[in-house]
Design goal:
This protein is α+β, with helices and mostly antiparallel strands and 535 residues long. 17% of the residues lie in helices and 35% in strands. The strands form nine sheets. Strands 3, 4, 9, 10, 16, 17 and 20 form a seven-stranded antiparallel sheet that branches. Strands 1-33-23-28-27 form a five-stranded antiparallel sheet. Strands 2-22-29-24-25 form a five-stranded antiparallel sheet. β7 and β8 form a beta hairpin.
Amino acid sequence: MYNTSFFKKTLLIASVVLLYSCDKDFNAIGDDLIGDNHFGLESEKYDVVAYDQEISPIQSNAFTNSALGIYNDGVFGERTASYATQVALESYAPTISKDPNPEVETVTLSIPYFSHATSTNNGVTTYVLDSIYGKPGEKFKLSVYESGVQMRSSYFDNGSQFAQLYYTDQNADFNTFKDQVNSGKLLNDSGDKSQNAEFFFDSSERSDDVRDPTTGVITTTKAIPQMRLNLNKEFFKTKILKATAANLSSQDVFQQYFKGLYFKVEKAGGSPGNMALLNFAQGKITIKYKVKTDSTTDPEATTEDKSMVINLSGATASLLNDVKVPTYQNAISAQNKVTGDESLYLKGGQGSLAVIELNAFGSKLEDIRAKKWMVNEANLVFHIDSEKMLGIPDATVGTREPKRIYLYDLTNNTPILDYLTDATGSGAAMGKVVYSGIINVDPTSKKGTTYKIRLTNHIRNIIRNTTAVNVKLGLVVTGDISTAGSNKLKLKNDVITDAPKASVISPLGTVLFGGTSTVPEAKRLRLEVYYTKPN
């Protein structure tokens, strides 16, 4: 009977975890799993010192996803995201042709968007773009240039190899050096303004007509929404098709010869623009061209259709520029490290985080150990300041709020124990649902109310292990809860040297109540610990 009962309980718990991990609305998942019925356990609350900390220019290379575009939420200000990447031939030492003058038909740059299908009617699929920030369809100026910066993944110094770092504030460098290559010639120079001067993220399904070179039969294929830019044919004819064999012989040589692409973003007239997260590594340039097969001089000679692919591959840099609103700028410039700040501004990108110190709890450690109190659960509940989060609402979703926040060991730039030991859920959005940090949403207003983070194991370890340090904690927004690594700051300070990588990826932000005495009691940040206290 005991084994049967145990099996039923285990099955029930597993079912609850599975059901809640599939909840796409992020509503109080962590709360429901952990539970608020503590069955007579005694709660102790400890004051918390929490203050703002600016994230200065930060390492931004080698992201899986990177932002492109312009986004202004009215709370933090306007951010502009440009991008630079190396490129690589799909196949090196290609046989182009003996024809000295190949005819380029098209050069197309394509990068797929994150999207999902909503319906299909008469063979046409309707899509909605994901990871879009700002009003759909708004425009900005997108200019694509040959990069003038010789990027690399690593470098050698005195015989040792080091990773080459690129930082969020280097847009001016790429903009300056692009003018030294081909006089800064615009590559996406189509007469269609939607490809340059009035670019927007188009959610339309793509159709391609492909002609069989042997039969001449044309087949139409369909593709998900994606960036499609027609690039300058003469540039790629000279740069690629008429390049020397040596310049196309290997990756190292080719990337010195063709340094890559620079995507420059600017405002387009009065449009506010919008922003998207893209996986640029899925992008490619396809060159379609014709060459003569019978004779290099006979104008009537037969021709052959050929193509080459250049992948967006190699070293990359996300290039960010922020124009902060005064309230936000003042908050992160005048933080109070002694008593803490009333408002905590968390912002992704080249943004800000909150530093959290559990000093009041630390002062009680010896007493807790002496009394042999056992920790059953420990939480930090962060209340969202809805008034400060009014901002400029998106047309379809209201003011965008980050779905998750991430608490980590700021002193050592590592995850806390609760993060490391939580195997519930999965993926960038729904992993680690007990550790949580998932937004809780009011069902009526559809606005966020709180974030709750469980740090039970972290607190237990401090109590049990007398050599454990009551470290400073960091709190950031996250674009991917499964990514826990840190990126280097360009200019280190006495508080932080690194910041979580997943925070730099996210363009979103939130404003939370701190732990000062000026914050209303019900919304004040405190550490709450539930103990079993021996009689």
